[in-house]
Amino acid sequence: MPLKIIQIKDLSVKYGDIEALSKVSFEIEAGDYVGIVGPNGSGKSTLIKSVLGLIPFEGEILFQGESLSDFMLQKKVGYLPQKMSFIDQRFPATAKEIVVSGLYCRKKFPKRVTRDDYQTAWKIMETLGISGLADRSVGKLSGGQQQRVLLARALINAPQLLILDEPTVALDPQSRETFSLTIQKLNRENGVTILLVSHDAGSIGKYASKFLYLDRKVVFYGTFDKFCKSSEMTDYFGAEQHIICHRH
């Protein structure tokens, strides 16, 4: 039986009187690549914040049968948000220093970086094809290069689950494709379970093994092919379903 890495049961979130999520339930198996899509205001980022334990919620989120806090404390989750706003040309750090900083959370005071830490960072950067950027100022890298550096930072603790919140939204088309192929390779060749939020429903079908369409509740969860062949989804989306599936 496949290992369930995440079980979400009746997840609901309210901001005042506004219900952002309503009884959302789904499961993710180890090795899945789940793409989450939906319209603006559908609760995609709220779902990610709930999974990361950043906001209060009703319902239950289990990681391999453990509570959210226990799982997070074991550093089994890597997280990559949208393009970091703090990185500009004056940011005084090299790419390898940014990657190594991902280890700080598991270090005890005083948080000192060792030679072994830099060796670990180097290996991760080699895997992602960015070892040549190690000594370059991160503020002077392109948007695509910066995101791959931040991806290396998210991977340095060898997480079982990698969560990405619209990581390519600020990238040009070529950088977006390169980054997406890198994530796909991590999933298929390294076995990293992926949970990725995207604004592009059509493109996510090229990479993800499962497709979650969210609109404050789960509208559809399954493979992209099943979504495209579903008469129920045809009734729900109309012409939009054809547009999404045609782009795939």
Structure, described:
The chain has 248 residues and is α/β, with parallel strands linked by helices. It folds into two domains: 1-76 and 160-248, P-loop containing nucleotide triphosphate hydrolases (Rossmann fold, 3-Layer(aba) Sandwich), CATH 3.40.50; 88-158, no CATH class. 36% of the residues lie in helices and 25% in strands. The chain is built from ten helices and ten strands. It has helices spanning 44-51, 68-73, 95-100, 115-127, 143-155, 173-190, 201-204, 224-229, 231-237, 239-247; strands spanning 4-15, 18-29, 33-37, 58-63, 66-67, 77-80, 161-165, 193-197, 210-214, 218-222. The strands form two sheets. The chain has a six-stranded mixed sheet, with helices on both faces. Strands 2-1-4-5 form a four-stranded antiparallel sheet. The mean pLDDT is 86.
- Sketch the topology as an H/E string, one letter per element: EEEHEEHEHHHEHEHEEHHH
Rg, rounded, reads 19 Å
* Tally of DSSP β-strands: 10
User: What is the CATH topology assignment of the largest domain?
Assistant: Rossmann fold
End-to-end separation: 30 Å
**Which architecture of the largest domain would the CATH scheme give at its second level?**
3-Layer(aba) Sandwich
Largest sheet: 6 strands, mixed
CATH H level of the largest domain: which superfamily?
A: P-loop containing nucleotide triphosphate hydrolases
- The coarse overall form would be globular
Count of helix runs = 10
Structural class: alpha/beta
| Physical arrangement of strands within the biggest beta sheet | 6-7-8-3-9-10
Summarize model confidence as the mean pLDDT.
Answer: 86
CATH class of the largest domain: Alpha Beta
Question: Which residues form runs of ≥5 with pLDDT under 50?
Answer: none
